[in-house]
Amino acid sequence: MVLPRHKLRGLSVLNVALVVIVLTIAVTAYLLFFRDESEAASTTRPTATVARGEVTASVSSSGTLDSSQSASPQFETSGTVTAIYVKVGQVVAKGAAIAKVDATAAERQVRIAEQNQIAADNSVEAAEESLTNAEEAAEAAEEAAASPTPTPTSGQTQQQSQTQTQDPEVAVTNAKASLARAKADKEQADQNMEAAEAAVDATTLKAPIAGTITAVNGTVGSVAGSSSGSTGSSGSGTETGTSSSTSGQATSTGGFVDIADLKSLQVVAAFPEADAIKIKAKQSATVTLNADPNTNLSATLVSVSPTPTTTNGVVSYSATFSLAKLPATARIGQTANVLVQTAKATNALYVPSTAIVTSGTTSTVTMANGGGSREVQVGVRGDSFTQVTSGLAEGEQIELLQGAIGTANSGQAGQGRTGQFPGGGQLPGGGQGGFGQGQGQGANNGR
Prior knowledge:
Elements: H1 5-43, E1 47-49, E2 51-67, E3 70-72, E4 79-84, E5 91-92, E6 97-101, H2 104-146, H3 154-164, H4 168-202, E7 204-206, E8 211-216, E9 223-224, E10 231-233, E11 238-241, E12 257-260, E13 265-272, H5 273-276, E14 284-289, E15 292-304, E16 309-311, E17 314-323, E18 335-352, E19 357-359, E20 362-367, E21 372-381, E22 385-390, E23 397-399, E24 425-426, E25 432-433
Parallel strand pairs: 3-11
Antiparallel strand pairs: 1-23, 2-13, 2-18, 3-12, 4-6, 4-9, 5-8, 6-7, 8-12, 10-11, 13-17, 14-15, 14-18, 15-17, 16-17, 18-22, 19-20, 20-21, 21-22, 24-25
Helix pairs in contact: 2-4
């Protein structure tokens, strides 16, 4: 069928309009996507200038604020609690009475020991007297044997016969043996007396350290104490004990009270094994408390535990930090964040870490303005900046291949270095700054 001429003319106009629309869409898409991508590509590699200053590396972790000295003392003898002399929050001195258990049985043992001690003293006195008599008799016998012997009468003959049946030397030996036994019995009685008196003293629980009572775990009328009377220890400067605090048959593990020195606090934090090998005693650290994040506290690493702790397959090592000064608002148990400086290079050439590409043991940077890549030797590696020991000169321009540092968090490492940030690249989106303009707070100090 042949369409009329006016209809054919209408279809041609429609086709032309469709072609124009398609071309318009294509051109718009090109301008929107390909041009923007090209422009983005030209701005995703800002340049930075090799600078000189201080570079530091660090590792971080979080932990808790804890007392450097704490104790959980327990009664060394079992008994019913008759008195408690302290309450939570009370400050006590070392040796202060904390609580007391019934001392009736212990005091009875003291009275028995006293009687045995008196009897032993009497036995020693009697044995000493017997020895003295035996020695005097032996001396008299020797003198009689040395003098002339007159002719005895019948009565004297009978008396001498009876005396000769008792050897003076044997009597002395027996008396000495009796005295030795009496002295041994007295020594045992004295020891029993000391033990009985110590048992009475043990009925009063005393503070092993000076500090603040943080918990009272027993009540008057409950049964407390350990039959073994032993006290274990846990942690640095920490004393703990195993107790049985019962009302009826219930028992609880721990000391009768908990004491902590709240004037001397420390931070205990766990570091993963990859970071733990980088830290060691006497390294400086910075601590911030979640309760006061704007205050930096100076700290020193005291020790790193030689044994690890494994949690959900993750191995970590506990580190203890001492604080130079505590804010008045610091409280035991608060969350603390620790930053440990592990390495530092002063008067060093450095570049942004994002400018370095490392493959195996080889590190390279890309020079700006088409200068190609160059192999470099690196030293201290920080989170934001890395020391360059060879391969670059101060003032040279390089490209940031792995991202820019001038946006959002990029300038955080600027302040605190000994050198200014020369140069200054054009950042994606028109932002000025980059490595050359960073003026952040420097919390990481170039790490």
